[in-house]
Write a structure and sequence with these properties.
With 372 residues, the protein is of the alpha/beta class. The chain contains 10 helices and 17 strands. Helices cover 29% and strands 26% of the residues. Helix 3 links the parallel strand 7 and strand 8.
């Protein structure tokens, strides 16, 4: 399998354009997509002028798009990891004109889009993943369309050039059109570490930093909320396209540095839990152990471990079967039904789908585990 080292390019602060920054956390990370391996060099910094946290230097955007194009797509029967009702509620609350709705980052159409089609005359999606059944692959593919609402849910933290992305969205919107944005919230990193440790994330937002960069690109905030966000580790913001907007530069250096460092402390605690699970695998010679989810967390768990035959990695996505090949096979749940029924230990490596995994085991296999 081909290995690509993703090149990095210089990057000034996306909000205040300052080149003065302080390193918070840097590391290299090797990951895998459908057909290739990729080496990321992640260098998280904080702007000492305004306090925005971002990666600099940053992964080259053109190469990054190739990485996303080859990434594993969400499969049709996978449980949603976001609250559809909350997304629909925001749309109904703030979008009055409902002819065209465009979503960037929609991996596949789901119940959410089915419900949108009852509200809008046209619902369009854009997603760079080659396996996704989207209407468009990138923003530049969309032409001759004027949208009433453009939404992007947990996309902007992946975008190296925020201003260009927002300007492209602005061009798609009708005058006073609505933009809905959800991103992870920096102040929640000490509770939810997945946005912090994900190597793909190049921006780490506070509410004020998102408001500031949106204002610089012609968007006026209507409302922002943590409680109404469709995922528990982020916030939703609703903006209106305007002709002129006030330039805002936040002063959050001390606050944001403290929040990011709290997240790093939680990351260290998470790695301790990983080591406890590794010890369990090493010590259990006979009891069957299930590891649920073929992902980056599982990779950390099994790294350099001699995996015994009593350990089974399980994932409901058939595309993940060779995720750890040739070292380890990933099984579909129905392939290890007998092993599930007699398993003594369950290690769940995905926070977002943990509840649905436990529910699936209880409902389909009548299997329960005592949780720690």
């Amino acid at each position: 399998m081909k290995m690509n080292k993703i090149p990095i390019v210089p990057r000034s602060c996306p909000i205040c354009s300052s080149v003065n920054s302080e390193t918070l956390w840097e590391y290299e990370y090797l990951t895998k997509t459908c057909n290739q391996s990729w080496l990321f060099n992640v260098h998280n910094v904080i702007c000492t002028t305004c306090g925005f946290v971002f990666t600099s230097p940053v992964a080259d955007e053109n190469v990054l798009m190739s990485y996303y194009a080859d990434s594993f797509t969400r499969f049709v029967t996978q449980d949603l990891d976001y609250n559809v009702d909350k997304r629909i509620c925001i749309v109904q609350k703030y979008v009055d004109k409902r002819e065209v709705f465009v979503e960037f980052g929609a991996n596949v159409k789901t119940e959410f889009h089915n419900r949108l089609e009852k509200l809008f005359s046209s619902v369009l999606t854009a997603e760079p993943n080659e396996s996704a059944s989207s209407d468009f692959k990138k923003i530049s593919d969309i032409s001759n369309i004027q949208a009433d609402c453009v939404a992007h849910y947990f996309v902007l933290e992946h975008v190296p050039d925020i201003s260009t992305f927002l300007q492209q969205i602005r061009l798609l919107l009708k005058p006073e059109g609505i933009m809905i944005c959800e991103v992870p919230l920096l102040s929640l990193y000490e509770k939810y570490i997945s946005p912090l440790i994900l190597h793909e994330h190049v921006n780490h937002f506070s509410i004020n930093s998102l408001i500031a960069i949106a204002a610089q690109n012609g968007f006026e905030l209507i409302d922002s909320s943590v409680e109404e966000c469709s995922r528990p580790f982020g916030f939703v913001s609703v903006f209106r396209k305007v002709e002129y907007s006030e330039e805002l530069i936040p002063d959050e250096y001390a606050q944001n540095k403290k929040l990011f460092l709290k997240g790093l402390h939680q990351k260290d605690l998470f790695l301790k839990v990983i080591e406890e699970a590794r010890s369990l695998i090493r010590e259990c010679e006979d009891d069957i152990i299930l590891i649920y989810a073929a992902n980056e967390t599982t990779k950390k768990l099994i790294n350099n471990l001699n995996i015994p035959k009593n350990v089974y990695v399980v994932d409901s996505n058939p595309l993940k079967r060779d995720y750890f090949a040739p070292m380890l096979r990933v099984y579909l749940p129905e392939e290890v039904k007998d092993e599930i029924l007699v398993a003594k230990h369950l290690i769940i490596c995905t926070q977002n789908h943990a509840k649905s995994i436990i529910k699936n085991l209880e409902t389909n296999y009548k299997k329960t585990f005592q949780t720690n």
